[in-house]
């Protein structure tokens, strides 16, 4: 497994783990928010999945089987199911990444960006990290338990290292 594959496996694991953790919260807890974050927990998770789909589409030219957009009224169970499918899509895209020639068209103040595959991959990692941190901030400032989504916890989840080693 390449270093990039490990980074994306962490990305897939961390979002799945966060959605699963949030499934244990009450409806009232899911309404929690905090200044300086995207907003309430469920809309933030929906945004993570929606933007992730848009980035995959920029890489492949293909939209998701079930398109998620901000403002959708999705249960966390449904979002989890969509994320599992999206994770498989990422794995397939990463296997074929060297064949992808991505040019981003000019948009607003942004110029056309040829050879943008690395940029889109970088944005997928950075964007989700940022918003997963928002959710954990909301949980923390509202005195709710939050999952540790760091590389160490991911590595432990793979069985490569145990608590005693």
Automatic annotation (TrEMBL):
User: Could you confirm whether the keyword Cytoplasm appears in this record?
Assistant: no
Q: Which top-rank group of organisms is this from?
A: Bacteria
InterPro entries, per this entry?
DinB, DinB/YfiT-like
Put simply, this protein is called DinB family protein
- Name the protein family: Belongs to the DinB family.
Q: According to its UniProt record, what is one Pfam family this protein matches?
A: DinB
Can you tell me which residues the record assigns to a coiled coil? none
- Species source reads Luedemannella helvata
């Amino acid at each position: 497994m390449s270093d990039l594959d490990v980074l994306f496996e962490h990305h897939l694991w961390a979002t799945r783990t966060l959605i699963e953790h949030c499934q244990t919260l009450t409806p009232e807890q899911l309404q929690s928010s905090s200044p300086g974050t995207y907003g309430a927990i469920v809309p933030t998770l929906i945004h993570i999945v929606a933007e992730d789909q848009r980035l995959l589409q920029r890489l492949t030219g293909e939209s998701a089987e079930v398109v998620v957009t901000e403002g959708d009224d999705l249960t966390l169970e449904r979002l989890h199911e969509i994320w599992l499918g999206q994770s498989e899509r990422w794995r397939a895209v990463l296997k074929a990444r060297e064949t992808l020639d991505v040019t981003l068209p000019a948009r607003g103040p942004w110029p056309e960006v040829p050879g943008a595959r690395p940029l889109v991959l970088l944005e997928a990692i950075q964007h989700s990290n940022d918003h997963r941190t928002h959710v954990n901030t909301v949980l923390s400032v509202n005195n709710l338990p939050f999952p540790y989504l760091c590389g160490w916890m991911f590595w432990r989840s793979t069985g490569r290292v145990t608590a005693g080693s």
